[in-house]
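REQUEST ID: PR-0412
SUBMITTED BY: lab tech R.K.
PRIORITY: routine
TASK: structure prediction, single protein chain
INPUT:
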Amino acid sequence: MTYGEFRRLCLIVRIFFHYNLDELIPLEFVSRVLRLYRRCLFWIPNEYLNQPQGVRLRLALEQLGPIWIKFGQMLSTRHDLLPIHISEELTLLQDSVTPFDGLKAQHLIESALNAPIHTQFNNFNITPLASASIAQVHTATLKNNGCEVIIKIIRPEILSLIQSDLKLIYRLALWIPHFIPSFRSLHLIEVVHNYEKTLLNELNLLREADNAMRMRRNFYHSQILYVPKIYRELCTKNILVMERIYGIPISNIVMLIQYGVNLNLLAERGVHIFFTQVFRDSFFHADMHPGNIFVNYMHPDNPQYIGIDYGIVGTLQKEDKRYLAENFLAFLNRDYRKVATLHIDSGWVPPGTDIEDFEFAIRSICEPIFKKPLIEISFAHLLISLFNITRSFHMEIQPQLVLLQKTLLYVEGLGRQLDPNLDLWKTAKPFLEDWIQNQIGIPAILQTLKNKIPIWASKLPELPDLFYEHLKQNKNIQNRIDRLASNLYYEQNKQKKSYCWFSLSPILLLSNIMLLILSSEWTTLSIGLIISGWITWLIGWWIRIRPPRVPNKPDS
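STATUS: complete
OUTPUT:
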């Protein structure tokens, strides 16, 4: 550990005890050791003792800085690792930090463009519009057409800061299970690795630009979601240039009401956008917190969402979508046996799982929930409860499902802020039923044939050549197998012959020794036995090194 890492670790320990977070550690022997160590550090004040554990953890992460805030935001989605009351508190972590110097931002833009800023932009505002842990945003207008844009700039030297903190987080993830055995089942190294991957992806703004462009294509001319235009030719790895949008933050309910926005329709459209992204496009915005969602207030009776910041997106395979849709419908129909079967068939739960026990565990979670009216049931919290119960059945948490769960929490939370009577189940069920029908019904088969026939038709003229090549390859493979079998048979015979000659050689030499012991003098017979012994050994050696008689001819 370097001196810098040690200083950082000391700061973490001080903040850890300052917020009395040693209470989070299970009551084992190591906990008593930590308590003794805590008494030795008596000069560190113990504050916020009247606050819940989740609040104290959130405040500690905020004090540690932007990288730890991001880590806490990621942990807030891992309800399989933390108790719900703590993970829900971590969702409140705010990603706003002090901005860096605007002149430095201008220099970074000029370095990325390899030209003075006035060659591409007018009215560059040196005061940032917003600032976050990874990047900050400035406004400008394009020189060629006068369009208003925002320029997102990665913070200078953020990569080195991230890498140094990640090293320390990796060390802690490696040490903690050794001192606290109950943490071994949490696979902390894998958790940190997933966090590192997500964080480094966010540092590449070209990736975010491509994600935003793909989402814009998916919802082009859509009345429910608008994705701002990306000026890809001006984007680099650390600079993103995007159309500036004007809208009401989704969290500002008072302003939405003032503008007369139809909140009920807005809430339903949020659910519709989510399921469209997941089941139609297999590509969904996985960072839909309130700071990234705005509302177009120009048509309050026909409200439109505006989504920004596509640094984190989720994708689903066709099989994942099918199993998710069927699982949701099975929950709605309270068919717990089908839910259990689908989990096993999809590979989310090991194949040897006792389906009866698994069904009973799911029923014990779902039945008390379904005694409430559907309108009072939280779809997202139901998934969280299921993930918690299936953990005891060794369910492997899929990364795409974690992102999906996080997004669903955001969608449901935002929807019920807009409309407390939002029935997510009622809104989702027709969508899921239509999607499944389109995937497995007659129209789906006809659509698949329609898509495949042009490909098959283009391959049809190649079939005779492909068939001939197939026969030719089969003949070559058969010839190769025959030669290998012949060589193997020859090698086996060669080994047997050499073994016989090698076995005869020591017999002749031992016979000569016995003859010398009996006669006590050299005779013609004894000399002949020695010569014969050496000759038989040479014959056996020559047979063993002799090359195969069957030549390895090249394939025709």
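NOTES: Residues 552-556 have pLDDT under 50 and may be disordered.
REVIEWED BY: pending
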